[in-house]
Design brief:
Length: 229
């Protein structure tokens, strides 16, 4: 879209989507997994409705993975300041219903910033949507394979793989102790995780992944259509 298209949209509607991602290790998958998935699920969900999807905010809060090269983490106060500025900018443009389509668990403090934003602007509405753990999508994941975690099969889509990368291990990885992981320094996190997968299979058949993806797109679209009460 150019600015004219946005102006025309705002003349008849006030919805938009802001995807939120991260740049962090995902074992043998792209460092941009969280950004790729949040932006893509938002774009596919919004396309039939014509709702604008803004470029993904590709850096998030991920200090635990700082010992993995390529991981870039924002301080929590920096992330929240950026998110507040973006929301205020969207509001100033005329957007009043903003879906924040989040792809990274570490960004969760942003949900409070979204609530503060609507507190400052009672005529605005925001929805914080962790797309991968929304009810219907998570049900589809659990039905497929209950052992699903960070950098495992559940994030391994055709569009998150690195071309010509070595094939992933065929055997599932034992689940790491997540409670212990949360107490460790970045260097110790890398020592415990090794390649970065928390546990489970590294890849499942694409037909299974596409079924889950279709559920995620439909669930995200339903929020755009009906989630503004």
């Amino acid at each position: 879209m150019d600015w004219r298209a946005v102006e025309n949209w705002l003349a008849r509607d006030d919805r938009c989507v802001l995807p939120l991602g991260s740049t962090e290790q995902h074992a043998g998958l792209s460092l941009a997994v969280d950004s790729i998935l949040s932006e893509r699920v938002a774009a596919e969900a919004a396309a039939p409705l014509g709702v604008p999807v803004f470029p993904v905010l590709a850096y998030g809060i991920t200090p635990a993975f700082a010992a993995y090269p390529g991981t870039v983490s924002l301080r929590a106060e920096t992330y929240l300041a950026i998110l507040r500025d973006v929301l205020e900018g969207l509001y100033d443009q005329g957007f009043r219903r903003i879906l924040l389509c989040n792809g990274h668990g570490g960004n969760t403090p942003g949900a409070a910033a979204a609530l503060e934003f609507t507190g400052r602007h009672p005529d605005a509405r925001t929805r914080w949507h962790d797309w991968w753990r929304a009810p219907r999508t998570q049900e589809a994941v659990q039905t497929t394979d209950p052992v699903a975690s960070h950098a495992s099969w559940m994030e391994n889509f055709p569009w998150t793989r690195i071309p010509d990368a070595p094939p992933p291990p065929e055997q599932p990885k034992p689940m790491t102790d997540l409670d212990r992981l949360r107490t460790l320094s970045p260097v110790a996190v890398r020592e415990q995780l090794g390649d970065g997968n928390f546990g489970g299979l590294y890849q499942r058949p694409d037909q299974e992944m596409l079924r889950i993806w279709q559920v995620a797109v439909a669930e995200t679209r339903s929020l755009l259509e009906d989630g503004w009460a």
